[in-house]
């Protein structure tokens, strides 16, 4: 949570503020409670405003900052202290010598504040961050060097943090440090950048360096120097950013979410691209696990949160069916607290768009401590979870900006299919021609998703009569069950409507009591080519219809049986059972987005949420 940018250009450069503001606009999805920017020109000047970035931009339009080559900026998701101008970052030290921005939580802030109070330095905000600015200023006075001062300061901090700082008397230098929070460095020509993720500077450069855990970087226009918190120099190769800046702008749509729904065919296609070796076998992106270990695993545990966990639920059906390995799906934040049975024969699969979700990161660390191997399915290169895992399978969904996950979800599901087929091939559960048949079916999915998206006007037309509904229910069986959960989550987070997803078979065990006249109920109907499953859902459908519900079905073309009981049928193309979620979730995303729009809500930045949940 929170987006951070730092920039340093040549002495006569005047674009620091513009670069930082552009970075903040791309990072705003990480938090939008307040935003601020600071520059140094021999003295520090800064402006910060509560609310969305636009409030800061409006203020800067009437009261611009001085031209500068060195700047830092922040967009905030509130943890300690309300979303006020005062609590917004950057935070200035008591003597005006230091300005810094922070992402994470300083757990010992109260103790640090007491130490400061003993020296007569009182806090003026309610944040945990402010004390770091004062401590850094005291260290700077002592050390006379910003890098050494930050090294001394991080030694005093407990918790998670990325800190980016500038000093009044050191224009041309930005220092940054990270522990348990993301930080990447962007490499320019006579200018350099730091950011929470590559989106911070993707409009400026395609060259980047990942920062490791407990590392500190000093950037000047011509140098990037990394060291550990112990002061050991670090050499690290750069990587090329494969996202283009245009992918992170709206591209003619009203909202990022609409654009990202439309990006889904390419998200799936790109995730499938280039996966076959010359010998015709499937490949992962980074494999630091011996294949003999993967052949021996006897259990898979998927750890993830929110939408990513629902992708994990879909994975369970596919991987168990293809590989005959038991798969458990565990919310990452529950995983380590229940003393899970994990051994060196367990493969833990962490699914995460951002690669920075703290709950998932902690589950990954716990799993590795217990001797398990961790394979991460991640969308963001250079992210912490990708770095800390034994193997990585990247989803190529491109930057997902809207807080509600759409294209990352279908890309995650696609990646789990690839993983299932990879393991099936490696362990001999499937012959390579069978794997190729599945891959061919997967390659057909982008066009099928496009076919569903092409019905968006009909789906959007449904919302006019739904604006005032209090509850919406979603029911599905088999892989339709996680789709029902995801449909409900989308509606909750976007339209602020109470929604529940259930396994359709569970209906009679309680939830049917919720059904009353006109209660909207979405059914994710399985293919009629699985007659037993299909018939069961048809019965559930009749049970709610008989109680006066308004029944909306997502059903395959040619499934005539549903029409008799449904008030509305949204058609999806004929699709193999296990691949159904890739198409059946799309109408639910469009519906939630349209309903939120109809209610006049902010689709891309729903209240109380942040894109990347980097606190536990
Ligand atoms: O970045 P991650 O995939 O780890 O994020 C996990 C969840 O926070 C995320 O999927 C969240 O549930 C989405 N906002 C839902 O749309």
Architecture overview:
The protein is α/β, with parallel strands linked by helices and 616 residues long. It has three domains: 3-248, Glutamine Phosphoribosylpyrophosphate, subunit 1, domain 1 (4-Layer Sandwich), CATH 3.60.20.10; 256-443, 3-Layer(aba) Sandwich (Rossmann fold); 456-598, Rossmann fold. The strands form four sheets. An eight-stranded antiparallel beta sheet has the order 3-2-4-1-10-9-11-15, with helices on one face. Strands 5-6-7-8-12-13-14 form a seven-stranded antiparallel beta sheet. α7 (264-272) runs antiparallel to α15 and α15 (445-453) packs parallel to α19. The protein is globular and about 75 Å long. The mean pLDDT is 93. The protein binds 5-amino-5-deoxy-1-O-phosphono-D-mannitol.
Features:
616 residues, single chain, Glutamine Phosphoribosylpyrophosphate, subunit 1, domain 1, alpha/beta, 19 helices, 3 domains, 8-stranded antiparallel β-sheet, Rossmann fold, binds 5-amino-5-deoxy-1-O-phosphono-D-mannitol, globular, 7-stranded antiparallel β-sheet, 26 strands
Poorly predicted ranges (pLDDT <50, ≥5 residues)? none
CATH architectural label of the largest domain: 4-Layer Sandwich
Beta-strand share of residues = 15-25%
| Count of distinct strands | 26
**CATH topology (fold) name of the largest domain:** Glutamine Phosphoribosylpyrophosphate, subunit 1, domain 1
Bound molecules: 5-amino-5-deoxy-1-O-phosphono-D-mannitol
Main beta sheet strand tally, sense and closure? 8 strands, antiparallel
Output the strand order for the largest sheet.
Answer: 3-2-4-1-10-9-11-15
Query: Tell me, what's the shape?
Result: globular
* End-to-end separation: 11 Å
Q: With helices defined by DSSP (H or I, 4 residues minimum), what is the helix count?
A: 19
Mean pLDDT rating: 93
**Helicity level, as a percent range?**
25-40%
CATH superfamily of the largest domain: Aminohydrolase, N-terminal nucleophile (Ntn) domain
Structural domains: how many = 3
């Amino acid at each position: 949570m929170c987006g951070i940018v730092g920039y340093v250009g040549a002495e006569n450069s005047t674009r620091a503020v513009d670069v930082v503001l552009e970075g903040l606009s791309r990072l705003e999805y990480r938090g939008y409670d307040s935003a601020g920017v600071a520059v140094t020109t021999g003295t520090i000047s800064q402006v910060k405003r509560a609310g969305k970035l636009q409030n800061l931009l409006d203020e800067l339009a009437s009261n611009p900052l001085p031209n500068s080559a060195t700047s830092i900026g922040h967009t905030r998701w509130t943890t300690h202290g309300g979303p006020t101008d005062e609590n917004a970052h950057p935070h200035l030290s008591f003597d005006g010598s230091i300005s810094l921005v922070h992402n994470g939580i300083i757990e010992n802030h109260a103790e640090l504040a007491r130490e400061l109070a003993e020296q007569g330095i009182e806090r003026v905000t309610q944040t945990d961050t402010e004390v770091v600015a004062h401590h850094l200023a005291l260290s700077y006075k002592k050390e006379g060097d910003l890098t050494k001062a930050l090294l001394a300061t991080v030694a005093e901090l407990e918790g998670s943090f990325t800190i980016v700082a500038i000093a009044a008397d050191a224009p041309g230098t930005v220092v940054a440090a990270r522990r348990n929070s993301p930080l990447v460095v962007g490499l320019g020509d006579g200018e350099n950048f730091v950011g929470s993720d590559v989106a911070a500077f993707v409009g400026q450069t395609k060259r980047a360096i990942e920062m490791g855990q407990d590392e500190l970087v000093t950037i000047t226009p011509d140098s990037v120097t990394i060291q550990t918190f112990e002061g050991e120099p670090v050499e690290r190769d750069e990587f090329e950013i494969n996202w283009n800046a245009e992918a992170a702008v709206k591209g003619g749509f009203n909202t990022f979410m609409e654009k990202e729904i439309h990006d889904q065919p390419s998200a799936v296609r790109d995730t499938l691209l280039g996966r076959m070796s010359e010998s015709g076998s499937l490949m992962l992106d980074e494999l630091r696990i011996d294949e003999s270990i993967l052949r021996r695993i006897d259990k898979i545990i998927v750890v993830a949160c929110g939408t990513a966990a629902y992708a994990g639920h879909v994975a369970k059906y596919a991987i168990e069916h293809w590989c005959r390995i038991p798969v458990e799906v565990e919310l990452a934040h529950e995983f380590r607290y229940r003393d899970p049975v994990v051994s060196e024969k367990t493969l833990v699969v962490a699914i995460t768009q951002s690669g920075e979700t703290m709950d998932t990161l902690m589950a990954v660390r716990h799993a590795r401590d217990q001797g398990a191997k961790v394979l991460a399915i991640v969308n963001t290169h250079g992210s912490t979870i990708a770095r800390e895992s034994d193997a990585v399978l990247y989803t190529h969904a491109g930057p997902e900006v809207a807080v509600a996950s759409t294209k990352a979800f279908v890309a995650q599901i696609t990646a789990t299919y690839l993983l299932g087929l990879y393991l099936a091939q490696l362990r001999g559960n499937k012959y390579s021609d069978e794997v190729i048949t599945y891959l061919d079916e997967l390659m057909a999915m982008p066009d099928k998703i496009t076919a569903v998206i092409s019905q968006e006007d009909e789906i959007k037309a449904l919302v006019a009569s739904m604006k005032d509904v209090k509850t919406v229910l979603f029911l599905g069986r088999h892989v339709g069950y996680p789709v029902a959960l995801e449909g409900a989550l989308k509606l909750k987070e976007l339209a602020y409507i109470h929604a529940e997803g259930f396994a359709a078979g569970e209906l009679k065990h309680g939830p049917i009591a919720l059904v009353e006249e006109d209660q909207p109920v979405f059914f994710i109907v399985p293919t009629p080519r699985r007659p037993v499953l299909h018939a069961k859902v048809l019965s559930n459908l009749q049970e709610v219809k008989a109680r006066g519900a308004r029944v909306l079905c997502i059903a395959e073309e040619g499934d005539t049986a549903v029409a008799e009981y449904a008030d509305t049928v949204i058609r999806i193309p004929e699709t193999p059972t296990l691949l159904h979620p890739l198409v059946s979730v799309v109408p639910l995303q469009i519906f939630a987005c349209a309903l939120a729009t109809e209610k006049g809500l902010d689709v891309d930045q729903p209240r109380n949420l942040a894109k990347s949940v980097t606190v536990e």
